[in-house]
Amino acid sequence: MAHVSAAERRPQLIKAAIELMSREGVAAGSTRAIAAELGVAQATVHYTFGTKEELYRAVMEQLTQDLVAQVEQAAPTDASFEDTIVTLAEALWRTVLEQPASYQLLTELSLFALRTPHLQEALHSHYGGILTVTAKLISEAADRAGHQLAQPAETIARFFLAGFDGLTMQRLSLPDEEAEGACLRALVSAVLAMA
């Protein structure tokens, strides 16, 4: 059997971990189970990542990168500030509707990280990265449209993300498309008023 380098094995293991934990939850994400998911020896996981926590960190980073990329691709380049914010919020909400398992896994990993000292930095990095990207998209939309923000972009981003996280949790816990649509529109209206 040909040797596979750690650099090649890393994305395979991350994908296997995401698939397994999306299906069965974070508690099922032992290094043994993740190795079995990919069909490799458990030692391969340890060799590639060192610890389970490092693998979990990589999973959080990958999920975050994937979701951010999808939203950034939806950013219009020639729309008004208001239309851009609506488009970005709708694109982000589509990721929740189309990939609920990713959001559930991110939520589980976030809660797990709160009680795992080695993962708290990954959690800060995850939320910090999301906040930075959101603030950047808001600033870019305002600059493109010549819109003067009434509050700092980071404050607006924090407000939006707090509401969006709540809507996401409601979607995962008690789905109601009609109510969710109304709440998303209300959140966007509040963000625009704040901006």
Automatic annotation (TrEMBL):
Keywords: DNA-binding. One of its GO terms (biological process) is regulation of DNA-templated transcription. Residues 7-67 form the HTH tetR-type domain. It comes from the Bacteria. InterPro entries: Homeodomain-like_sf (IPR009057), HTH-type_TetR-like_transc_reg (IPR050109), HTH_TetR (IPR001647), Tet_transcr_reg_TetR-rel_C_sf (IPR036271), TetR_C_31 (IPR041583). Residues 30-49 bind DNA. GO terms for molecular function: DNA binding. Pfam families: TetR_C_31, TetR_N. This is TetR/AcrR family transcriptional regulator.
